[in-house]
C-alpha cells in the first residue's frame, strides 16, 4: 500500500485508523473507538503489561481489552507479549486427553451465589482455601493458619457473612469437611453440604480447575503484590465474547483499572444517597437541638469529664474557660471525694495513699446540680449508721 486512498495521500499518522474512521469519536478530549480509548504508541507497552497481569493468555487478554482500549494491530502485540513471557511458557499445562462428558459437570445454577465449591491446596509452605461461585466463576482465595475444621469454618463464616449463605456448598471428603463440627456449621448457616465421590476428587471439578489456575498464578507471581493484582485481573476479565467478567456477574460492577467510558448501563443511586444523607443530617440536628441544647458553664460548676485512659466519666469542677469553643479547664475531684477506698482491714485509706491528678483541658458535660450527684457516696460509721450532712449544706 502506497498510502493513497481514492487518489489522496494520507498522513502516515492516521493511515492505520482509516478503516475504522467511522467508529472514532472524541469525548471530553479523548479519542474513542466505540467505548474503547485509543491508546497512543508511548502508552501501549504499559497497557500490554497491564493486560498481562495474572499472566493470562492471548484470548483472555483480548477479552479484557475489549471495550476498554484499542490501537491498530493490538492482537499482534498481545500475542507477542504472551509468546515472550517466560513464566507463561514454563508453566503451560500438559494436554488433557480425558474426554469430558455432561456427567462430569455441575448443572448451571439459576443465579449467582447459589452453588459454590471449595477446596484446600498447598503451595510454597502455605495452606490455602479456595471458594468459587459456579454461576460467575468468581474466585476467593485465603491463606490458612491451620487445616482443621475450625480454621476452615472461620474463613467460610466471614465469607458467608459478607455475601450470604449459598444454597449448596460442594467439597471433597477431606477431614475438615467430614466432621460433626462442619455439619453443625452447615445447619447453623442453613446451606446444604455435598461432598464428592470418595477417591475421586475430580467430581469437584470446578474447584479443582480453579485451584490449578490459582497455583499457576502463584508460580508466575513474584510476591503478594503481583499475585493479588493478577487475581484482580482474573476476576475482571470477561469469561468469553458473550459473557461479562466474574466480578460483573457476581458483584454487578467492574473491578479493573482500565480506562472506561462512563455509561448508564447500571443504575446509579447517587441522587437517592445524597438525599438520604441530607435527611440524616437534618434529623440528627433536629434531635440535637431538641434534646441537647448548647450549654455554657461558669467557674465552679460541677461537671462530668471523660477520662479516655480509664474509659469512664469522672466528676470535676470548672476552674476557667478555654479560648477554643465549648472548652473549659477543669479540676478533677480527688478520688477520696468520690468513693473512698478501703484498706484490707476495712478502714478508710489515708490521704497520703490517694493520688489527685492535675487540672487538664476537657470538653465538659452538663451535670444535674443535685446533692446526691455532687456529694460523695454516703459515709457509714463503724456501727453501720449513715452519716448525713445538715440540710442547710445541701443545694
UniProtKB/TrEMBL annotation:
Q: Write down the InterPro entries for this protein, in alphabetical order.
A: Integrase_cat-core, Integrase_H2C2, Retrovirus_Pol_polyprotein, RNaseH-like_sf, RNaseH_sf
List its EC numbers. Answer: 2.7.7.49
Q: Which GO terms describe its biological process?
A: DNA integration
**Residue ranges of the region described as Disordered:** 332-395
Q: Which Pfam families match?
A: Integrase_H2C2 (PF17921), rve (PF00665)
Basic and acidic residues bias spans: 350-366
Q: Which residues form the Integrase catalytic domain?
A: 108-275
Molecular function terms in GO for this entry?
A: nucleic acid binding; RNA-directed DNA polymerase activity
State what protein this is by name.
Answer: RNA-directed DNA polymerase
